[in-house]
Design brief:
The protein has 17 helices and no strands. The chain is mainly α and 353 residues long. The chain is globular. InterPro entries: TPR-like_helical_dom_sf (IPR011990), TPR_MalT (IPR041617), TPR_rpt (IPR019734).
Amino acid sequence: MATKPGVVRCRPGRMAQYLGALLQSRPEVREPFELGFAAMNISSWDQAIGYFKQAIVATNGPGLVALNNLVGVCHYTQGRLDEALKDFQESARLAEQYDDRQGGSRALGNIGRIFHDNGELDRALTLMEQALALSDDSNDPWATAIHLGYAGSVHHDRGELDRALQYYEASLTMSRDIGDQWGVATQLANIGNVYHDRSEFDKALEYHREALAMARQTGDQWCLASNLGSIGNICRDKGDLDEALKYDNEALALAREIGHQLGVAADLGNIGLILADRSEHEQAVPKLAEALTILLATGVADGPRQTLTGLAGCEDKLGRKRLTELLKQAGRDEEAITDVFDRIDQLRMRRPD
């Protein structure tokens, strides 16, 4: 029998954007950059990438550091992590070439974030520490606050909750000092996740609701979607499945709207797990299957296990034949279905009944 899966968590916080001197660049560079940045602000990621690439062709100077970073942010948001990694690595290489420490700091931090997503925690932490050293050296408190939060997330996933809390609180203090409302909301959410993992659900809700209110006030849809999902996770762990489903459905709609694929996958996975908890296994299967498809495509380390455990639980209740029928109805072909069952079988071999 499958064990009960945990939640699928989507970490709050965006990648570290960098504009450098683009606002003062020549018109043939600045104009496509401004159009691309405007497209980012309305979540038109492919359009933004197209404009940024126009600007890349038009320049051969330090502005390339920022432009490659921005293309990476777009690719990351779309769940195209391999492409994002190449973009950030190119940004880091150019930053070293042009002695751009602020640009280098943000590129290294973003590279670390991707290694974190891929489960390479030690390598991620090394990159975060390098990014922190550069942001401190270049007097870039905005980036320092982001990197502190990133490092806290790595310690969090290593199970070092006290250490994670120290980093989150340091980032929160710095974000407040520089008036970065987005950073404040992000770290409140991170702190809430620590208390969630400590099973201090009421305290976790306090932090997430404060972050949620701030996200609504500032119009930060990314942070808003993340906190809605986090509150849904807490409600599920408290046994309030109807309330959890309400929050996760709202989070899913918002994640789809802004095109954040990892957020979409997390919310779909959590909705599927809630439906399974409610014994609505036939309704759970397509949600879990869609979540798994996205998670496997992005290559992230966290998430596939939870969704596979949920699907294994559905198989326990429905049988393999019915699960196969539901996966077909959800648009999965024979090869994809075979892969799902292979993964479920591997999961069962690693877990006691």
